[in-house]
Structures are given as C-alpha cells and as structure tokens.
Write a structure and sequence with these properties.
By secondary structure, this protein is α/β, with parallel strands linked by helices. The chain has 14 helices and twelve strands. Strands 1, 2, 5, 6, 7, 8, 9 and 12 form an eight-stranded mixed sheet that branches. It has a two-stranded antiparallel ribbon with strand order 3-4. Helix 1 packs parallel to helix 2. The longest helix is centred in the last third of the chain and has 27 residues. About 5% of the residues have low confidence.
Length: about 400
C-alpha cells in the first residue's frame, strides 16, 4: 500500500490585500484539486500576512470559511474579523513617546548649546519621540485569540494536530524567530501572528519574553526550509507580491468607468517606484530561495503560485487598503483559475505523482465565482479561444523544458 504523500503549504506576506489574494487563490485551488484538503496538510509556514491565513488553516478553517469571515464578513459571528481591527491607533505607543518628548527636547538642546554636538546628532535624539508604529495589534490579537479558541481549535501551537510555524524577525539581532517550533511554541498563536505581521512603521514591534519582534519578511520571503526539513513530498507556495512587467504600454486599469494608464512606472511618481522596488527585492530573494530549495531538497516537488506579473489590478491596488478587498478576492480567484488552466498539463503531471488530480469540469466551468454577487458566464467563442490559449501555453512550456534539457 502506497504511503500518503506529505504535503506542506508556505504563505508569503503582502499586507492585508496580500492576505486577500491568498484567500482567493486558495479557494480556487481547493475547488480545482478536490482531494487536497488545506486543513489537513502536514505542515504550514506563514510569514507576515500569510501567518494569519496559515494559522486559520492549521486550525481547521477552510479557505471558504476564511473568505466568509475575513472578506465577506458574513457567517458565524464568532469568526468575523473586521477590517477595522487592523487599523486601531496605537494610543499607548503615542502616549509613551509623547511623555518622553519634553526630556528628549531638553537633552537635544543641551547637546546643541553646551556640548556643541552636530545638529544631526540632536535630531537623532529627538527622533526617539516618534512612535515606532501607527497602529496597535491589541484588538486584532484579542479577536484572533477568540477565533482560534473556538471548539475544535486552539490558540496553542502545542495543541494543534499539525505543524504550524509563524516566522517573525528579532528586531535587535535580525535573526528569524520560528514561532511554533520547539522552544518557540509557548507563545500564543494570536501573538505570533501579530509579531510576524508587525511591519515596521505601521505596527510597533511586538514584545515577547523580553525581546522585540517585527515582520518575518525582513529576513526571508517564504521561510519554507522549516517545512522542507520534515521531508515533504510536495510543497505548495503562494506569494502575492511580484514586480510588474510594464513593457511598452505600462499598467492600465479601468476604475469607476475611467481608464487609468501609466506608460512607464516612473510617471506614477514615488509610490509606484517604491512599490516596484519593494516587490523586486522581495521577489529576487524568493527566486534565490526557491533555487536553493530545489538544490537542497531535490526529492520535493515545489509548486509556486503568484499573481500574473502583467496584471495591473494587483500592482495598482492599495496593498494596505480594504475598500476593494471583495473585488480583489474575486480577481485573485479568477486569475488563479486561469493560471491553473494554462498550466494544467504540467500541474497534472506533478500532482499526479502525489495522488492528486485537477478537476477538469470545475476548471472549465465558466459560471464559477468566489463571491455570490459575481456572475460572468462568457461566450462559447470566448471559451474556445481560452482553451486554445491554454493548449498553446502547455505546448510552449513543454518545448522550453525540452530545449533546456538538450
């Protein structure tokens, strides 16, 4: 009798809308591979926003349940996670810094007037009065603790039936903190989520056991090695942030009936330049990491899912906004279904090695949507052209693979 394949899931970060994209993509994957139960995998690792999704899955919440609770804000009231929980002002941090400001100002004045120190040195001292983050995670932690403490779930890593690792970064040493591994599993899951997602500037560092922790993505993009070391057969990876490939036309999107076109990213100003820079840095680390994983664990099939790099919806979306979360979740769901169709030949082979199969009828069903209010049947001609494009994509990948071997 064949052994059951060991399957793991690695989720990268990307802000709140990165979590929205991952939920939409996971819903599409769960439908397309019916034998793949995302609540019973052999291991989960989450970084930043991905830590919230990983913790929910490891606690038995299906991708659809996460969608209902986080995106639609519907279903059982005990599971609802409202967007405003992420953006509560860090009043305690503001107060602490404000109380320290007069003393810091006196010290800066003394440095300038008496000690004759440079202006920059005095300004550095005054900088200590600035809050270390704008928003508090206290309310979010309390809500997550309640969600993870519902019957059949746990807010304690040690009580979970499956390995869950949520990675943060130790602010004072720059080292990774793998909450959930032995020696790190005494921390409540809800607090580990807050530490892993504490993006500097937005959230103050999270204090745990006398140390301060920030976003896990500062160290690595996926941190998948903590799962690969368990001897996985298949590792599924989701990364919501990719650099945009503008080409000659640049990003274009229709918003509110009006087209927005930016021929070159530089014309979008500092926000688009910084976004592209951040995405490129994150993705270059991911590519290096995946190459290293392939070399160090050749017996593990690693399958990565990402947004289309030519897709302006993901690039132009406000990564930390919520007003478009329903539209983006639906978009992620449909885009992932389209990717599955375009990669179905190669994916069928990879999944087949582990007893999994794509549901062709589900993939080719044009009426499937993520959210109830979306219905887009499409025409027969459009579906025929789409299927032709998928076949040509499979052929191109096969030719490229053959060319690489020769």
């Amino acid at each position: 009798m064949a052994l059951k394949p060991r399957i793991g899931l690695a989720l990268a970060g990307g802000g709140p809308l990165g979590a929205v994209w991952e939920i939409g993509a996971l819903c599409a994957l769960a439908e397309a591979v019916p034998a793949l139960d995302f609540t019973t995998l052999d291991g989960y690792v989450g970084v930043s926003a991905g830590s919230f999704i990983a913790a929910g899955l490891a606690n038995g919440m299906t991708p659809r349940q996460l969608c209902t609770s986080f995106i639609e804000n519907d279903g059982p009231r005990a599971d609802l996670i409202r967007p405003d929980l992420f953006f509560r002002p860090a009043l305690r941090e503001y107060t602490r810094r404000l109380l320290a400001a007069p003393g810091l100002a006196l010290q800066a004045g003394w440095d300038l007037a008496v000690r004759r120190r440079p202006v920059l040195a005095a300004a550095e001292r005054l900088g200590r009065a600035l809050p270390a983050g704008l928003f508090s995670s206290t309310a979010l932690q309390a809500r997550l603790a309640r969600v993870f403490s519902a019957p059949g779930r746990s807010n304690d890593f040690r009580r979970l039936q499956r390995r869950l690792v949520l990675v943060a970064t130790d602010l004072d040493s720059g080292t990774a903190a793998p909450f959930g591994l032995p020696g790190w599993d005494h921390v409540p899951i809800s607090q580990a989520v807050a530490a892993s997602a504490a993006l500097p500037g937005l959230f103050p560092p999270e204090p745990i056991d006398g140390r301060w922790y920030v976003d896990g993505a500062l160290k690595k993009t996926l941190h998948a090695s903590v799962l690969l070391e368990q001897g996985l057969d298949l590792l599924l990876c989701l990364n919501p942030l990719v650099p945009f490939e503008a080409g000659a036309r640049g990003p274009h999107r229709v918003m509110g009936g009006a087209g927005v076109r930016i021929p070159q990213l530089v014309e979008g100003g500092l926000p688009l330049v910084l976004s592209q820079t951040f995405r490129s840095l994150i993705h270059s680390r991911l590519e290096l990491g995946l190459k290293g994983y392939a070399d160090s664990h050749p017996g593990t099939d690693i399958v990565l899912f990402e947004p289309d790099p030519h897709d302006p919806e993901m690039f132009l979306a406000n990564t930390f906004g919520y007003s478009q979360r329903r539209l983006l979740a639906e978009h992620a769901y449909r885009q992932t279904r389209a990717e599955l169709r375009s990669r179905r030949g190669g994916l069928a082979t990879t999944l087949g090695r582990h007893g999994l199969a794509l549901d062709e009828a589900v993939l080719d069903d044009p009426q499937r949507t993520l959210l109830r209010h979306h219905r887009n049947v499409g025409t027969r001609a459009g579906r025929t052209l789409q299927r032709l494009d998928e076949v040509l994509s499979d052929l191109q990948r096969a030719l490229e693979a053959r060319s690489a071997r020769s």
